[in-house]
Write a structure and sequence with these properties.
Elements lengths: L1 H20 L4 E6 L4 H17 L4 E6 L15 H9 L3 E6 H6 L12 E3 L2 H10 L3 E5 L2
Parallel strand pairs: 1-2, 1-5, 2-3, 3-4
Length: 138
């Protein structure tokens, strides 16, 4: 009887441990380039991650010349950005400081974008929250 109780609690512990692990796939992408091929690549990466890890948490942080990726009239990937943002699959975080520098207003952004006061602070915050960091380059 003691063996059965011991086995029961071991199985209970293992199932609880496995259940609590879940998807802990969290990534933050750091993008500063205006290169449209790179914009397409980061969208492709995000979609690929979500295909294999549907519960993944992904944030893409924009500053510098990368703002063109999330500006309505300049983006070459606007429809993909809009779809991912609308489904809440990916957070697109746009640096307010960079918006001031490049004279971009919030109403110029693709719908669904989130603004953050400072991109670098956002990146550090995500990393300290357990997000893996990916620098997107050309």
């Amino acid at each position: 009887m003691k063996n059965k109780i011991c086995i029961f609690f071991c199985l209970l512990f293992i199932s609880f441990f496995c259940y609590s692990q879940g998807s802990n796939y969290k990534l933050v992408f750091d993008i500063t380039t205006g290169d449209t091929a790179t914009h397409q690549r980061v969208i492709r990466w995000a979609k690929g991650i979500l295909e294999t890890q549907p519960d993944a948490k992904i944030e893409i942080v924009f500053y510098g010349k990368a703002l063109d990726m999330v500006v309505k009239d300049k983006s070459t990937v606007a429809s993909d950005v809009f779809k991912l943002a609308a489904d809440k699959k990916v957070t697109f975080a746009v640096c307010e400081h960079a918006m001031k520098v490049f004279k971009i207003e919030k109403n110029q952004l693709i719908d669904g974008m989130v603004t953050v006061p400072d991109a670098l602070l956002e990146l550090v915050s995500k990393q300290s929250g357990g997000y893996g960091y990916i620098k997107v380059t050309n």
